[in-house]
């Protein structure tokens, strides 16, 4: 069953993904700036502590009790501020991480609903799944590191200013040393970016392969192909593993650089400061402060290299999300209005009269599916609905008035009642009437909790015929103005098919219904039958009239049997 959820109140139109993306970015701006503010203050307080400790040591050396108490009180106050800002920084970091990650999920989910049938044609399942599996984590981490990264830059600037005001050579050493470290790390980022992109693509393909194997496991076992596909999966997983090893090779060098480069700068700053203290150019308290500054700088500089790594991963992940958002639906709607009426596909000549149960039998199943897609506005076509062209109506209105239910529809996780009543407006009586019409009452009665039973993913606890009957019941519960069913009885036995054919006509009495089928049992119950050959209407009438008057129709629906 194909449908599009209604937009939430206050949310920009999901038909404009970039506008919706900008709206989400604006919502993220305030907590992001607040987090940057707390992180900056947190780093700044830590940057001031070595200077205060140095002054306290000088007070001890000078045996100045009053000055010692003053600097101790200042240090205690800085500790309290650091504790508060540290708590708030972490709180805002987690908030921004979760907001960025799950707003990305919401954004891609809305775009997926907007694209509808276009999405599986343009992207594999694995590519879409990988957004929720890994990309949201990288996008969230990039928001987290952005807070500490901006604060670390402020801390390094503060330390540099303090060192320059105290000792010009040491200040210049830090001033030029930090940019040189950043330049040294730079060459690692491009190969890291390239290898991460390749690894993400391979992981997406592997997810697609796994989904295919799981979905078709019953068929694979039936034909003895599970070992072949398992071998293919192992080969692809090894390619993903090798790609991950190549990524980790660059990441390990980057991680080592986070230790070696800051350590080297600390050693130089401490050595130069010690030589100045021995020469008597700076007091002992300042030497201790310089050493503490050198140790302190490890944190901000490691944060900068970490930011380079996480922002690179976030950039790769964001590129995948943007790729999904940049896809446009193959079909769009207009802004017109219409009262409905006769639904006609000009290319094939198929015409659905209001309130009539019409069956379409095609010599090739794909022709019937193509007609259903055009009538349901899932493919471009010259289709009229009453006095207006179907393309001029809003797409949301078309989806609410014309329902195309095919065998590609799925059952999702959740209560069976919610699976059947997707709009949440049907009564129990209405649901049971639909189940009876679809001959699915026995399926529900066999469940311990009946309609409140939990449905597993893709309804895997049901057989193919049971799933088909439940999908038909779901379509009947929806009760659209026009219902188009594609092979609704292909997986059920002949007795159930005969009952469904009889009850379907009664359930849809007075409503427009089209059934694409070559089943004689269903065709015999239709009020009007249309035979399509090579995509065009070749004959029309009742089932028995066409059997007598159209040899091609008779050969199609009887499979060449006398």
Automatic annotation (TrEMBL):
It is found in: Cell membrane. It comes from the Bacteria. GO terms for molecular function: ATP binding. The keyword Nucleus does not apply. Residues 33-313 form the ABC transmembrane type-1 domain. Keywords: ATP-binding, Membrane, Nucleotide-binding, Transmembrane, Transmembrane helix. Residues 282-559 form the ABC transporter domain. InterPro entries: ABC1_TM_dom, ABC1_TM_sf, ABC_transporter-like_ATP-bd, ABC_transporter-like_CS, P-loop_NTPase, Type_1_exporter. This is ABC transporter ATP-binding protein. It is a multi-pass membrane protein. It comes from Nonomuraea monospora. The chain crosses the membrane at residues 29-48, 68-88, 145-164, 170-189, 259-279, 285-304. The keyword Lyase does not apply.
């Amino acid at each position: 069953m194909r449908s599009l959820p209604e937009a939430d109140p206050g949310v920009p139109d999901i038909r404009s993904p970039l506008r919706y993306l900008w709206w989400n970015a604006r919502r993220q701006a305030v907590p992001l700036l607040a987090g940057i503010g707390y992180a900056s203050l947190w780093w700044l307080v830590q940057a001031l502590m070595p200077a205060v400790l140095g002054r306290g040591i000088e007070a001890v050396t000078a045996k100045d009790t009053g000055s010692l108490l003053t600097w101790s009180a200042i240090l205690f106050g800085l500790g309290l501020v650091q504790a508060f800002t540290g708590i708030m920084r972490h709180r805002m970091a987690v908030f921004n991480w979760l907001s960025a990650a799950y707003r990305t999920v919401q954004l891609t989910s809305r775009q997926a609903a907007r694209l509808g049938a276009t999405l599986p044609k343009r992207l594999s399942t694995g590519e879409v799944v990988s957004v929720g599996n890994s990309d949201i984590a990288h996008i969230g981490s990039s928001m987290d590191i952005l807070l500490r990264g901006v604060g670390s830059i402020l801390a390094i600037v503060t330390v540099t200013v303090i060192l320059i005001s105290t000792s010009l050579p040491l200040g210049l050493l830090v001033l030029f040393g930090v940019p040189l470290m950043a330049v040294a790390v730079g060459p690692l980022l491009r190969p890291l970016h390239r290898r991460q992109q390749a690894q993400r693509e391979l992981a997406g393909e592997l997810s697609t392969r796994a989904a295919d194997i799981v979905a078709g496991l019953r068929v694979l076992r039936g034909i003895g192909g599970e070992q072949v596909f398992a071998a293919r999966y192992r080969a692809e997983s090894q390619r993903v593993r090798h790609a991950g090893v190549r990524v980790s090779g660059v990441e390990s060098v980057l991680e080592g650089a986070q230790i070696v480069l800051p350590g080297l700068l600390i050693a130089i700053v401490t050595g130069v400061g010690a030589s100045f203290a021995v020469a008597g150019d700076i007091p002992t308290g300042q030497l201790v402060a310089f050493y503490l500054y050198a140790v302190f700088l490890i944190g901000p500089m490691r944060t900068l290299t970490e930011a380079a790594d996480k922002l690179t991963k976030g950039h790769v992940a964001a590129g995948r999300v943007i790729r999904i958002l940049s896809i446009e639906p193959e079909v769009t709607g207009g802004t017109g209005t219409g009262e409905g009426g006769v639904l006609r596909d000009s290319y094939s000549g198929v015409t659905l009269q209001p309130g009539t149960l019409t069956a379409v039998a095609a010599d090739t199943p794909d022709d019937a599916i193509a007609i259903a897609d055009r009538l349901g506005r899932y493919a471009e076509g010259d289709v009229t609905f009453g006095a207006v062209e179907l393309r001029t109506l809003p797409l949301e209105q078309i989806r609410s008035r014309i329902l195309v239910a095919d065998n590609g529809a799925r059952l999702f996780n959740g209560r069976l009642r919610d699976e059947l009543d997707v709009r949440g407006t049907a009564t129990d009586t209405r649901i049971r009437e639909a189940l009876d019409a679809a001959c699915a009452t026995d399926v529900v009665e066999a469940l311990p909790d009946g309609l409140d039973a939990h449905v597993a993913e893709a309804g895997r606890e049901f057989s193919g015929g049971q799933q088909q009957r439940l999908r038909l019941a779901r379509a009947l519960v929806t009760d659209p103005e026009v219902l188009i069913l594609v092979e609704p009885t292909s997986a059920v036995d002949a007795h159930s098919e005969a009952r469904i054919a009889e009850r379907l006509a009664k359930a849809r009495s007075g409503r427009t219904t089209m059934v694409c089928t070559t089943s004689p049992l269903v065709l015999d119950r239709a009020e009007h039958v249309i035979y399509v050959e090579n995509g065009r209407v070749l004959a029309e009438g009742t089932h028995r009239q066409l059997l007598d008057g159209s040899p091609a129709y008779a050969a199609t629906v009887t499979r060449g049997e006398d």
